[in-house]
Design brief:
12 helices, mainly alpha, 464 residues, coiled coil, two-stranded antiparallel ribbon, elongated
Length: 464
């Protein structure tokens, strides 16, 4: 049923006595009613229809008001939900803001002053690696590493991001200050020995705070302390090879441990010292020390040769001037005197001076370069200069009389027959007095058990 457009309560009954309703009255008069009865019948019919229309209108109004009330209620509920959602969103944003900028919203600890000494705190990039259980270089825990990472806190650089490729070649974004510090990174094996204990003692509590399991933290603490207290750490070693070997061993073992844990899903015990790997690390330390010593010797020899060359050049110029003056004097004497005796006396004197100078010059040159200054190579036994003496790949000895009996593989010295590992110190100038590996005390030049390569009869003699 259609809705009523106009309110029937405002309608009034028509005057049916008017001429306009005469035709309508005639309908009832023809049925035997009088004019008055016809008017009353029409009026009663209108009033009955008006009453029905009023009832429908009233019902329609009730329904409309109910609909409007329901719509208003729903609108109010939607507004309240929107307001609650906005409030919840604002609270979540504030919570995230407090979490992101925690230091900004920390309450002031009234009455608590600043500490006497600066607190050691690792930057977020290092803490993130520790939380993931990744390998962290000890350098970040040294004074130099902490200073490099923390000196730019709050600067514009600490806010900027830089592009970096990880080990898998994937592009990652890291803080620019972190990338800057990583370029100054010193690998574990290249640290100074006095940096090692301070670094691992700082890293152990950081690992614990990052959520590492206690058994792993204890394993690393025992591993580092055992190396710190190793006999090589306190040995009388002016070269530093023993302590450098411990640093190399620590770095290699720890990197290998992380790779095994990530790829093989097994957790080896680092506290079990691998003697073979430890001596291999010592061979590597000795190789690096010898290479450094070679560079120093070459530098000193070059400086000495330049000094002697400058001195020789300074002596030769005055001699040449004196010879020129002598020649001019001889020519002058010949012009002044026709006597041939004066001419003969002047010439031998000039030759004697020149010959003496030439002999002195030849003697100096022969004395400066007559004998090699390098120790024999452990492989080819030659004293000549090597491009990389720690990785000599010669197949024949220096004089081409013998086939080499040893070889270098990744810096390690081994016998070609049987691939037996040899002691690098035993075959170096430093020698080895250890009794823990007598089977490795074999000459790398002739396989003798009585001497090392430095005393091998096949080695190039100093006079060769």
């Amino acid at each position: 049923m259609s809705n009523i457009a106009n309110n029937p309560h405002h309608d009034s009954c028509p005057d049916y006595t008017l001429d306009v309703f005469q035709t309508l009255r005639k309908t009832f008069v023809d049925k035997g009613l009088t004019e008055g009865e016809a008017v009353n019948t029409l009026k009663g019919s209108w009033e009955a229809q008006n009453a029905i229309a009023k009832a429908r209108w009233d019902q329609q109004e009730i329904e409309r008001l109910e609909i409007e009330a329901e719509e208003a209620r729903r609108a109010e509920e939607a507004a309240q939900l929107r307001k609650a959602a906005e409030l919840e969103e604002a609270e979540a944003a504030l919570k995230e803001e407090r979490k992101k900028n925690r230091a900004k919203y920390l309450p002031v600890s009234a009455g608590v002053g600043m500490p006497d000494r600066p607190t050691v705190r690792f930057p977020s990039s290092v803490l993130q690696k520790l939380r993931k259980g990744d390998y962290v270089d000890l350098w970040y825990a040294t004074d130099a590493g902490l200073t490099a990472m923390l000196q730019d806190v709050g600067s514009v650089q600490s806010q900027r991001l830089a592009v970096e490729r990880d080990e898998d070649g994937l592009i990652t974004y890291v803080p620019e200050v972190t990338l800057k510090a990583s370029k100054a990174l010193v690998r574990d094996e290249d640290l100074a020995w006095d940096q090692f204990p301070m670094a691992y003692m700082r890293l152990i509590p950081a690992m614990r705070d990052a959520g590492w399991e206690s058994d792993r933290v204890n394993m690393f603490a025992k591993f580092w302390s055992s190396l710190h207290l190793h006999p090589w750490a306190t040995a009388l070693d002016s070269t530093g090879v023993d302590r450098h070997a411990l640093l190399i061993y620590q770095a290699e073992q720890r990197r290998q441990w992380h790779l095994i844990v990530q790829n093989d899903h097994t957790v080896p015990d680092l506290t079990v010292i691998n003697e073979f790997a430890l001596h291999r690390a010592r061979d590597e330390a000795m190789k690096q020390w010898q290479e450094k010593r070679m560079v120093q010797m070459e530098s000193r020899m070059t400086a000495y040769a330049r000094t002697q060359q400058a001195a020789d050049s300074g002596r030769s110029r005055p001699s040449s001037n004196r010879r020129d003056r002598s020649d001019r004097r001889d020519r002058r004497d010949r012009r002044r005197s026709a006597s041939p005796s004066s001419h003969r006396q002047s010439r031998p004197r000039s030759r004697s001076r020149s010959g003496s100078r030439s002999r002195n010059k030849r003697d100096f040159r022969s004395g400066a370069g007559s004998s090699p200054v390098f120790p024999p190579c452990a492989v080819c036994l030659g004293r000549h200069r090597h491009a990389d003496i720690g990785n000599c790949q010669e197949k024949r000895t220096w004089d081409d009389k013998h086939t080499t009996v040893s070889q270098r593989h990744s810096g390690a010295l081994t016998l070609i027959a049987g691939n037996k590992a040899l002691c690098g110190d035993w075959n170096a100038t430093r020698g080895c007095t250890s009794t823990s590996h007598p089977e490795r005390h074999v000459c790398s030049g002739c396989s003798s058990l009585k001497h090392g390569a430095q005393d091998c009869p096949r080695a190039q003699p100093l006079s060769a």
